[in-house]
């Protein structure tokens, strides 16, 4: 009896050893591959790869875009559609550049379309007309800075047209904007409170309503860089692009 038991257990172990594991291994490989593909697909969808050129109309976005991406100044055209191109940094990295139309009706729509793939934002300002247009300039910048989708994205406020004698310096523009943003956030808060009594902390920029707004209060890095696209003075911008 003892002998027979040993014999049957030996047969069982041989059978286990002879089992064909191939289908199990194939199934495991398929599952693993699916997980990897799903992971890569999801990552690709949210990958931040573009530098957005935004700002009001006539600040020089398309002019600079043409210079950086098409290799020279071209006659600029009224942009009703975005322009997409590539720029090679000094270190040899190729960045996708998107010139977002600044037309009042379209800029919000285009910004929403591209904000999730933004790696950096270049907010272009016409340094000559900035004082006259300060409300609009501050309002659109506020919209961008308050947006959660781009809250970790670095912003360059590019103070263009520095070749003009009446151009304001980047330091003057920065303090002008800080003052105006105080007013913009006040206006937005009261607008929000009039339609809805809930907290408006989602759309509040800066420390608190009782403290004057300063760009340094933001977690997001905002740099003010002088530029003259026309005279090809944009080393500050290309240096920044090289860090991306
Ligand atoms: N003086 C001066 N004019 C510029 C400069 N950059 C662009 N412009 C002019 O500003 C105008 C508007 O430029 P554009 O690129 O169409 O502005 P966009 O609406 O922001 O795309 C054009 O007439 C350009 O020639 C600059 O650095 N200096
Ligand atoms: Mg344009």
TrEMBL record:
Task: Tell me the GO molecular function terms.
Answer: GTP binding; GTPase activity
Q: What is its main location?
A: endoplasmic reticulum
Q: Which InterPro entries match?
A: P-loop_NTPase, Small_GTPase_ARF, SRP_receptor_beta_su
Q: Where are the transmembrane segments?
A: 20-41
* Family annotation (Pfam families): SRPRB (PF09439)
GO CC: one term?
Golgi apparatus
What family is reported? Belongs to the SRP receptor beta subunit family.
Q: What is this protein called?
A: Signal recognition particle receptor subunit beta
């Amino acid at each position: 009896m003892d002998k027979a038991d040993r014999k049957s257990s030996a047969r069982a172990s041989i059978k286990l050893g002879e089992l064909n594991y191939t289908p199990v291994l194939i199934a495991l490989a398929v599952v693993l591959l699916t997980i990897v593909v799903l992971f890569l697909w999801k990552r690709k969808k949210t990958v931040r790869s573009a530098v957005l050129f935004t700002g009001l109309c006539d600040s020089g976005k398309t002019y600079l875009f043409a210079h950086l991406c098409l290799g020279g100044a071209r006659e600029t055209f009224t942009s009703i559609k975005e322009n997409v191109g590539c720029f090679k940094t000094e270190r040899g990295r190729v960045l996708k550049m998107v010139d977002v139309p600044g037309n009042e009706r379209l800029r919000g729509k285009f910004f929403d379309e591209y904000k999730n793939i933004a790696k950096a934002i270049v907010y272009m300002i016409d340094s000559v007309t900035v004082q006259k247009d300060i409300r609009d300039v501050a309002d659109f910048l506020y919209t961008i800075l308050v947006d959660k989708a781009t809250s970790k994205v670095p912003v360059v406020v590019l103070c263009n047209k520095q070749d003009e004698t009446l151009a304001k310096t980047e330091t003057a523009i920065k303090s002008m904007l800080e003052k105006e943003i105080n007013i913009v956030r006040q206006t937005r808060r009261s607008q929000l409170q009039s339609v809805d009594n809930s907290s408006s902390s989602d759309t509040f920029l800066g420390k608190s309503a009782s403290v004057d707004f300063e760009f340094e209060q933001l977690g997001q890095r905002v740099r003010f860089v002088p530029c003259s696209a026309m005279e090809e003075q944009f080393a500050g911008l290309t240096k920044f692009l090289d860090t991306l």
